[in-house]
Specification:
By secondary structure, the chain is an alpha+beta fold. It has four helices and nine strands. The chain folds into two domains: 101 residues, Sandwich (Jelly Rolls); 28 residues, no CATH class. The strands form two sheets. A five-stranded antiparallel sheet has the order 1-2-9-4-7. It has a four-stranded antiparallel sheet with strand order 3-8-5-6, with no helix packed on it.
């Protein structure tokens, strides 16, 4: 079974919609859900997605899935927020599972493996944060260098901000 990429084909601007990085954006989410379910992609695959906002800090994607459709386990580089608008989904992360119904939301830390299955026809808003290499580390977890060194990224960030890190003495 081929894995479906959440953002594949989602970065498009529908007629009458704003640019993805507009200074002010307003959405009629109910109408967009209806529109996504009227498109050919939904009719063929029983899932569809539309990116609502995309810039250097985050991406917000409206997703519709029919019952039984799923995302195989994957990871996101940034923090993930999933707000279920309609239906019920099961979010799995390792041995942990959460069933979310319309109006409920879940959050995942960066790089946490997770999978999603629609238990009934569902619509959800998925927000994923992004940071540039020069931007703040935020809560993206330790860098590869920090992991190799066994360092705590939070204390590293505090040390960088306050200049409290001891520098090795030259011999």
């Amino acid at each position: 079974m081929a894995m479906w990429n959440l953002t594949e084909g989602a970065d498009r601007v529908l007629p009458g919609m704003h640019a993805l990085d507009a200074p002010l954006s307003r959405f009629d989410v109910s109408s967009l859900i209806t529109q996504l379910k009227e498109e050919e992609v939904w009719k063929v695959t029983r899932r569809n997605a539309l990116t609502l906002v995309k810039d250097e800090a985050l991406r917000a994607v409206l997703v519709v899935l029919s019952a039984g459709k799923s995302f195989a386990q994957h990871r996101a580089a940034g923090r993930v927020l999933m707000h279920v608008l309609e239906g019920r989904v099961r979010l799995s992360s390792g041995p942990s599972h959460a069933t979310l119904a319309g109006g409920q939301m879940a959050s995942l830390r960066p790089a946490v493996p997770h999978a999603l299955e629609a238990l009934e026809d569902s619509a959800l808003l998925v927000v994923v944060t992004h940071y540039s290499a020069s931007g703040p580390r935020g809560d993206r977890g330790p860098s590869e260098a920090e992991e190799r060194a066994g360092r705590d990224p939070e204390s590293n960030q505090q040390e960088r901000q306050h200049g409290t890190r001891e520098r090795p003495r030259k011999r």
